[in-house]
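Quick one: sequence plus magnesium ion SMILES, need structure tokens.
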Amino acid sequence: MKVTQFKTTALSLPVEPPRVSHADFAKVNPVVLELMTADGLSAHGIAHAYNDRHVSVLKGCLDALAEVMIGQDVFRGAEAWQKLWNASFRIGRQGFGISALSAVDMALWNLRAKALNLPLSRLLGGYRDEAPVYASHSLWRDWPIDRLQHDAASLAGKGFRAMKMRMGDKPLEVELERLKAVREAVGPAVKLMVDIRGDWTVTDSIRMGRRMEEYDLYWLEDPVPIHDLDGLAEIARALDVAVVVGEDVSTTYGFHRLLEKKAADSVMIDVAVVGGITEWLRVATLAYARNLQVVSHLHEEVSCHLVAAVPNGHMVEYLPFWHQLYTEPPAVTNGVLRIPDRPGLGFELDQQAMARYRM
Ligand SMILES: [Mg+2]
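Reply:
Sure thing.
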């Protein structure tokens, strides 16, 4: 079964509610890749940018790499990945270059699972048919305390058993007050995580990590920038609370370095940053060899299959940026996402929604 055609579509979706962030975060811009075969099968993968001005760069990378797949045997996955890797040499192996490669790899896996009439999670390993999720779509840095408390209680009321706050831009005492307020709002049973996005120093991270244990912090994410692997290792060594990093790390090579340094207690893998499903699984195996769990980053419609496929899959990040693109988007019940019993990803594109958001 060979790839005969492809189509890429750049979209512009509003972020609701709008918020302050590192990135120019007024929009989310998925580029959807659809791969087609001669027998009429088609399947998609997704990459994304965060503003309208960047999306043409991403689409260019995706067009260039998808072109390489014309004539590719869908069931020669390792060969396909290596061709994409070779072709990416000048396009770039981080940023949009690896996002584009990841989207092509996603679409190929989606095609394979559809051709075999299997849910993707079962083709990839089939460890279980559901994945626990944590709420990551609220509790932002710019929320005032009363809104943090209201939204945290509301998420718990909807059945989320784990949720994540963002921190890193306020005085440390203020951040502690905010964590305390959220813990009070949700009670003791909910897992609480905080994501610093690399904005603290090693010293602050260790001091804060210890003080946050009082509020039963479940994990501390990206306390310092990802390039500071020695700093991350020092923090992980000093703290009892789990240090979770990896969302900005690409390829098994990147994760190999991170794990060699013992820079994480648990690994976060973004399927659109690491190099697609092929690399996600390789990194999950590297982590498995060290008895570490893996959590996903974004893309819950793909990530739920990955976390469900492997024995060390821990949790799926729930951050529904583009649910409106699917006819039946991923649904969470009692903090768990059930893998759809449909072929491939099991989430099909809503062509009317695609037309509405097309750039
Ligand atoms: Mg993060």
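The longest strand covers residues 27-37. The chain has two domains: 3-117+351-357, 121-338.
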